[in-house]
Design goal:
567 residues; mainly alpha; Na+/H+ antiporter like fold; Rossmann fold; 68% helix
């Protein structure tokens, strides 16, 4: 009978989470907020399906721990630091600077409003990390994950995730407070990590090559590897969740990482739902005015203070204020790592129930508001652009504009498509200039003696300063609709006769651009399909011709890889 009640409660929880996820999507909120609210509803505050001491709570807690382990395993798979190659410096400085400054200020605020030392320390650490799940989900939905600000934010998140992983790894070790015990615990971690890494290099990575031939075997191996290391770390009195994280990190550089991640994600998502529902269910009464005020204070700090800290570090690398704002404002929420950190502190007896209430409230407020901030970030920037001049770097002022020259062709954006265009224009010895807002690209173009203009195409004031009216052809490889419409508007205002080629990610956006008067719109995946169709028509089923075309393409990619600006 008890088993039936547990199954019934779990079914209600999953059903409620599904309904709230649909509602969250309609109001442009990430699923995490729906899961947390579902937890609040099934918890003691509302329906009381899950409460202290109930069997359903015990089962939910077990599922939650599995969710943490699988989540950290997937995070470990994603911690391939080759991703930081392009933005390693800015991600490293901004990421570490943000963590240190946010933690220090958060600790001082915590102490000033009456929290004791240990809770203040936990909260300071929790405030320092931003949610990879939330940021990546919203930027992916907006098709901005591969934009300049999206890649900078992703680089900072990787740094934050790595530091968060270290913090989670060390907390159980530092719990005793005795130097000998701490040294022994750290020694265990180092020895285990070295042993697991050697096993991964010499055995696992070779074994996985054979296992990958069968999808089911690869899936089972990934689960087994994660749980095996989780159990191993637990046997050495270390966190089993960190064992799962290390399991993922050891496979991060494998060529089967994406395939393995794709196989495990559906299972992870199920347990992650229960993980965040469990967090939400820990919000119990009473919610005093003191807790609500504290939650409001910390939420304001995360939503306003944290982006300012990130933006202050990014500006030193010469990025335009729009890029600085879009990257910094996307990191204004509490992380899933923060909630896991709080849960560990609670389970170790370091934190009280009222502190759990505070952390959950901060998470709900910041995730909800920051989701809208990210979704409407461009509109927000346009409204407050004048207040952000302090974040406009002067590091590249000397190379900002080439006003005295006129160009027949102006190319907006050098990333990917622009790189190919540059090769063609150079062969034709065309009179052209490249407009880009990535300082790294600008310095590379200067080195190659290519005419450039440093600026943001979405900024109308900047567009007014460049010689668009003299050009005969404008090519924008920027997929952002707002930027292309801004260029079109300036061409119209200057009575330009230039042909305008723009870029769009989706057919719907292309239709909007055509309606605005743009002459031709590039849709990359449509052009890719057209190219393949042409190849099929020319090569038919001749394997040798495809192989030769592939060799030529491979050589081109290898040559391009040596360019510091090609991605």
């Amino acid at each position: 009978m008890q088993e039936i009640q547990i199954i019934t409660n779990i079914s209600i929880i999953i059903g409620l989470a599904a309904i709230l996820t649909v509602i969250a999507r309609l109001i442009k909120q990430p699923p995490i907020i729906a899961y947390l609210i579902a937890g609040v509803l099934v918890g003691p505050l509302v329906f009381n399906l899950v409460g202290p001491g109930s069997t359903s709570t015990e089962f939910l807690q077990v599922f939650a721990r599995l969710g943490v382990a699988l989540l950290l395993f997937i995070v470990g798979l994603s911690l391939d630091f080759r991703v930081l190659k392009e933005f390693g410096k800015v991600a490293g400085l901004a990421g570490m600077g943000e963590i240190i400054c946010t933690a220090i200020i958060g600790f001082l605020i915590s102490i000033s409003i009456g929290l004791s030392f240990t809770p203040a320390l936990y909260l300071a650490a929790a405030l320092a990390f931003s949610s990879t799940v939330v940021v990546v989900k919203i930027l992916s939905d907006k098709k901005e994950i591969n934009t300049l600000h999206g890649r900078i934010a992703l680089g900072i998140l990787i740094v934050e995730d790595f530091v968060a992983a270290l913090v989670l790894m060390l907390i159980p070790v530092l719990e005793s407070g005795h130097f000998e015990t701490i040294a022994l615990g750290i020694g265990k971690i180092v020895i285990l990590c070295i042993g697991v890494s050697l096993l991964s290099i010499f055995v696992v990575n070779k074994l996985i090559y054979y296992l990958a031939r069968h999808q089911e075997t690869l899936f089972l191996f990934g689960i087994a590897w994660a749980l095996l290391l989780a159990a191993l770390f637990n046997q050495f009195n270390l966190s089993m969740e960190i064992g799962a994280l290390i399991a993922g990190m050891t496979l991060a550089s494998s060529k089967y990482t994406l395939e393995l991640e794709g196989k495990i994600k559906p299972l992870r998502d199920f347990f992650v739902v229960l993980l965040f529902v469990y967090f939400g269910s820990q919000l119990v009464g009473p919610l005093t005015s003191k807790i609500l005020l504290q939650a409001a204070i910390f939420s304001v700090f995360i939503l306003i203070g944290k982006p300012i800290i990130v933006m202050s570090f990014i500006r030193f690398f010469g990025y335009k204020k729009r890029t600085v704002f879009l990257a910094g404002s996307s990191l204004a929420q509490l992380s899933e790592f923060s909630l896991i950190l709080i849960l560990i502190g609670y389970s170790l007896g370091h934190l009280s129930q009222s502190f759990m209430n505070l952390a959950i409230l901060i998470s709900l407020i910041t995730i909800a508001i920051s989701s809208y901030n990210i979704h409407y970030s461009h509109r927000i920037f346009n409204k407050i652009s004048g207040l952000l001049n302090i974040f406009e770097s002067n590091n590249l002022k000397k190379i900002e504009l080439i006003k005295e020259k006129e160009f027949d062709i102006i190319v907006f954006g050098y990333h990917r498509i622009g790189y190919k265009l540059l090769q063609t224009l150079q062969k034709q010895k065309a009179n052209f200039a490249v407009v880009d807002y990535n300082p790294k690209v600008i310095l590379a173009l200067e080195k190659e003696k290519v005419d450039y203009i440093f600026g943001d195409a979405a900024d109308p004031d900047f567009l007014s300063e460049i010689p668009l009216d003299k050009a005969k052809l404008i090519i924008s490889t920027i997929p952002e609709e707002e930027a292309n419409l801004s260029i079109r508007e300036k061409l119209k205002d200057s009575n330009s006769k230039a042909a305008f080629i723009a870029t769009a990610e989706q057919p719907r956006q292309a239709l909007d651009l055509y309606s605005s008067g743009i002459d031709y719109v590039i849709i990359p995946h449509h052009l890719g399909g057209s190219l393949v169709s042409t190849m099929v028509q020319a090569f038919s089923t001749d394997k040798n011709k495809y192989k030769q075309a592939g060799k030529d393409h491979y050589k081109e990619l290898k040559d391009a890889k040596n360019s510091s600006t090609f991605n």
